[in-house]
Amino acid sequence: MKVSKWTLGLAGLGLVSLPAAGLAEEKMNQMWTALSSTTISGYVNTSIHWNTGTGNGHVPAVSYNTSSKQDGFNLNAVKLAIEKPLDEAQWAAGYKAELIFGDDARDYLTTLDSGGDSSPAAIKQAYVALRAPIGNGLDFKLGVFDTIIGYEVFDGGSNPNYTRSYGFTIEPTTHTGLLATYQLCKAASVSAGIANTMGPVINQKADEGGLKAESFKTYMASLALTAPEDWGSLSGSTAYFGVVTGLNPSTPADQTSWYVGTTVNTPVKNLKVGASYDYLGMTQEFGADEGYANALALYTSFQATEKMSLHLRGEYAWTDTTLLGDGPAAQVGGNSEVFALTGTIQYDLWKNVLSRLEIRWDHLSGDGGQTGYGGTPAGGGGGGTTGSKRNNVLIAANVIYKF
Length: 403
Prior knowledge:
By secondary structure, this protein is mainly β. It is built from four helices and 18 strands. Strand 10 and strand 11 form a beta hairpin. It starts with a helix and ends with a strand.
């Protein structure tokens, strides 16, 4: 039964009545219209780690590479995403909600607990998306959204390698705030935003604990460039520049993260190269020492066959903080350095399944005296021992099912 909007309006005012069946049918139609543009997606991310040699209490200090993952089988993360993306309407509206579960979710620290509850269930993103008809269309995200800088992302299947880089490790991950994005032209877009803090704790304000004034906020901006079609083999290559500056309550200190990255299509078919540079600066405040961290990475990806691709990443990172290790090495004026080389073979044998085999080598250098690799973790009656190895080799398998 079809009912006109005019009749529905009169019914809403109580001037006319409608058969119950007609109202039920109308409500069902409205519900299916809303659901038809909603998408559900996600993944299950699993891995096997073998940390060669003896002792795994101290491993390379990159995100989600914990000592508990070594020499065994792991459920890294499960993600469930529900989204209504923006359509082509001038006043379009939508939303996105992403929930993550598992070991990696525990380290993401985006639960609603203002203390950064380390629960194995967390919110990755949850925002309302809006568009205003200004110029080419000005898009907004209001809520919790991913950081705007970085070559790699939390969703491991979207990265060229399985393990994360040192650049990813020193970057912010997520913010609670407002982000605006505008497409200047086909080749360029800009984003600018304001957030409570550098993140990641949801809804945490800079004035909690008396650290800052109530009005203190975190600010961010980025520029993305894409090579036009008439650039030949370089067509589609990208360059990205971004900065995020504000308070990190966990340090606590004012921090500024700068990022520049590029991915270049080469004249060699199916070969791409990339590069990224991250700089993190911390001011001397709240009793924390002034410090810095740098991370440089080079990437190469080659699509060998329809199903097989090869990926290589080389890294050099240096800092005078504990960001590259958990030992006493981060004395101000000292210098902790790490070299890393990662090789990954990806072969997509099953439908919707990403499968990878990876070998990663990390080497400690510098005069910071950071704790070496190996040793045993604290607890278990022995209190733990300090590692002494300067080299660490990880062999890992990664299998992800995407839906």
